[in-house]
Design goal:
single chain, alpha+beta, 4 strands, four-stranded mixed beta sheet, about 170 residues
Length: about 170
Amino acid sequence: MELNRDKIIEELAKRYYDFLMKLPFDDDLYMKGIGEGKRKFLTNLHIFLATRKLPKKHKLYSTDFITPSALEKIRNNPLKGLELEYEHIVPKGKFIHEICEKKAMNNTLSIEFIKDLLLRYLWTATVTKLEHDILKDIPFDWNGNDIQIRYSNAGITLLPHNISYLNPLIKK
């Protein structure tokens, strides 16, 4: 079963726009209270949309990429105890949240802007805990194009995450 990334991104952009435009950014107490929810909104909705048609609904099945080591661990194994991590390939805080929130505060945010940003930077991977631990920050001089730069710098290979190993559970 192929998940339609474009449809997921379109839905995410609409919902994220609605969410951000309703926030009272000038109310410090409200913003303090909703901080964690604000940071996790995109991730939680992304995981829900990406797994809603899967027989097993777990964030590790929702990722766009997977490392060979993680794939070996996840294939035909229960998820408990595998020491796998759900990872944003490009840090969403700096490259999505901060940018969108500033535009929302200035009332210049649009659904199309969010959609373009998500298509460019909202990519996820399933990696082992050891791989996660050796990942470094995006280089200061990053040009914004090579989304896998942190992984290539750490010598980590990413493969497209084909969830066919969930068969025959996936209904075609």
